[in-house]
Design goal:
Layout lengths: L1 E6 L4 E8 L4 E8 L5 H5 L7 E5 L3 E2 L18 E3 L2 E2 L12 H7 L3 E4 L3 H11 L2 E6 L5 H10 L6 H5 L5 E3 L5 E6 L4 H9 L3 E6 L4 H6 L4 E4 L10 H10 L5 E4 L1 H9 L4 E17 L5 E12 L9 E7 L5 E6 L4 E4 L14 H22 L1
Parallel strand pairs: 3-4, 4-6, 5-7, 6-8, 11-12, 11-13, 13-14, 14-19
Antiparallel strand pairs: 1-2, 1-9, 2-8, 3-9, 10-12, 15-16, 15-17, 17-18, 18-19
Helix pairs in contact: 8-9
Bound molecules: glutamine (GLN).
Glutamine binds next to strand 16.
Family: Belongs to the CarA family.
Catalytic activity: L-glutamine + H2O = L-glutamate + NH4(+); hydrogencarbonate + L-glutamine + 2 ATP + H2O = carbamoyl phosphate + L-glutamate + 2 ADP + phosphate + 2 H(+)
Keywords: Amino-acid biosynthesis, Arginine biosynthesis, ATP-binding, Glutamine amidotransferase, Ligase, Nucleotide-binding, Pyrimidine biosynthesis
Length: 365
Amino acid sequence: MNRQLILEDGTFFVGKAFGSLKDSIGEVVFNTGMTGYQEILSDPSYCGQLVTLTYPLVGNYGINRDDFESIDPAIRGFIVKEVSDYPSNFRNQWTLDEFFKAKDIPGIAGIDTRKLTRIIRKYGTLKGALCGLAVDKEAIIHNLQSTTLPTNQVQQVSTKTAYPSPGRGFRVVLVDFGMKHGILRELNKRGCDVVVVPYNITAEEVMRLSPDGVMLSNGPGDPKDVPEAISMIQNLIGQIPIFGICLGHQLFALACGANTEKMKFGHRGSNHPVKDLRTGKVALTSQNHGYTVTDESLSNTELEVTHIALNDDTVEGLRHKKHPVFTVQYHPEASPGPEDANYLFDQFMTLIKEAKEGEQLCQNV
Ligand SMILES: NC(=O)CC[C@H](N)C(=O)O
């Protein structure tokens, strides 16, 4: 069935439906990764967005049970050039069409996604609608221009109740703002005894779980939409080692008095070069963000910039000058993407170990 994508600037693209046939609106964002569509479509940080991929063939290895970053995708729709009807892979369990029908998510294929990406790159992120052909286009464009999209995405995707993921190692409280499961996998791989908690937990409740360290996850939307998390982090700083990823990084920066702003079209892909300013080393990283910590807001804080993006010099990593906290804007858990930055999870383990040894020293004197 023919369907269309209409953008708020009036541009429209006609293509073929796959998945659910429901209408959908959202912020249209592009990802430049060449593989990893399953991880991308199931990353909760895309909640409320219509995601397009610049790589032209999607679905060719199907959907499998192992590669989910969340079981119920939060994307509003998927926009691709060509969707494969006959995936080939030993792990394949669903075609993209079957999976999206089961999850009631609309997709559209046959779209020149590179042209769409060039429009977004030129004008910035745009709102868009996926709908049938028999619609009043002018009314939809007007609607898109006057609508503000919902701002409660973290609330939608964060876990409603705390749950354990046991291990024999360090006790980590993982605050779920819309967590990619890769983060939990990395902590479990290192033996951590993890408790995953909802986004609106207080610092007091976190400390009552007697953690050795706190991990702040990625998540969707504007970090300023979750003030309760900002004050929770403010109250934790100095009490416990903290590691933050993506939204967790932005929330930490806000908690320390820095500022964030929306980027023109963000960073979404699997090959974003990031430089570690202390070692000069460059890592290729997986990224998905539309907001950034502003460099100029850092001068009156106790934060040091540790990493920058080589494509546009934006802030990619921060460290607290006095307390054991570090955060990155990119995704060391990869999923999908290169594993260059995986060592940051080991760095978190070292930070926890040092903090515990420090505590022990204090107790012994
Ligand atoms: N992956 C993330 O955590 C994204 C953070 C935030 N929602 C942004 O778009 O910048």
